[in-house]
Amino acid sequence: MQAKASEEPVDVRVRRRLRELRTERGLTLQQIAERASIDISTLSRLEAGKRRLALDHLPALAAALGVSADELLGPSPPHDPRVRVRPRTFDGLTLWPLTHRGPAGGLHAYKMHISPRRDTPPDPLPVHEGHDWLYVLDGRLRLLLGEQDLTIEPGEAVEFTTWTPHWFGTVAGPVELIAILGPQGEQVHLHG
């Protein structure tokens, strides 16, 4: 039988919350260790319960996770499945996140609006690690993929390695699509 949060020992709750918060944010032990200035082996043993959790670890771990010490010490809040993140606009793209940050293999889904003004590709075309998946809902998408110049119609999907030089924009009007991007694609398409 599962113990209630109030009956759960504090050290067990903090270890569980540490793992939950790290996973929700898609962070590795290495990233948290660096942010908290704690040796990765120490952090791993803390999270696994193989090392005693000291009070002086709490502020650094909470800061590394972007939460207060109270949130690290407290019970898990009830999960809200709604994705409530403001859209981001960059270089003629407006993206509405459709997934939470968390364990999705680093992949995140977006609804994307491409402005008709995004009609001229950069030189050179960007290349980055990963894959992009795009599904056109409305409008005509221009996709430059290496030497190919493709027009993707509503109802069509494309999947491609982003090691190939690529760019996407519009053909005579705005485009609405669903995109699945990895962290490298997010970096390029959301921040340039």
How does this model look, in words?
The protein is of the alpha+beta class and about 190 residues long. The protein has 2 domains: about 10-75, Orthogonal Bundle (434 Repressor (Amino-terminal Domain)), CATH 1.10.260; about 90-190, Sandwich (Jelly Rolls). Helix content is about 30%, strand content about 25%. It has 6 helices and 9 strands; from the N terminus they run H-H-H-H-H-E-E-E-E-E-E-E-E-E-H. It has a 6-stranded antiparallel beta sheet, with helices on one face. Strands 6-5-8 form a 3-stranded antiparallel beta sheet, with no helix packed on it. A hairpin with a 2-residue loop joins strand 5 (about 140-145) and strand 6 (about 150). Helix 2 (about 30-35) packs across helix 4. The chain is elongated and about 60 Å long. It starts with 9 loop residues before the first helix and ends with a helix. About 20% of the residues are buried. The model is unreliable at about 1-5 (pLDDT under 50). GO terms for molecular function: DNA binding; DNA-binding transcription factor activity. Keywords: DNA-binding. This is Transcriptional regulator, Cro-CI family, putative. InterPro entries: Cro/C1-type_HTH, Cupin_2, Lambda_DNA-bd_dom_sf, RmlC-like_jellyroll, RmlC_Cupin_sf, TransReg_Diox_bact_type.
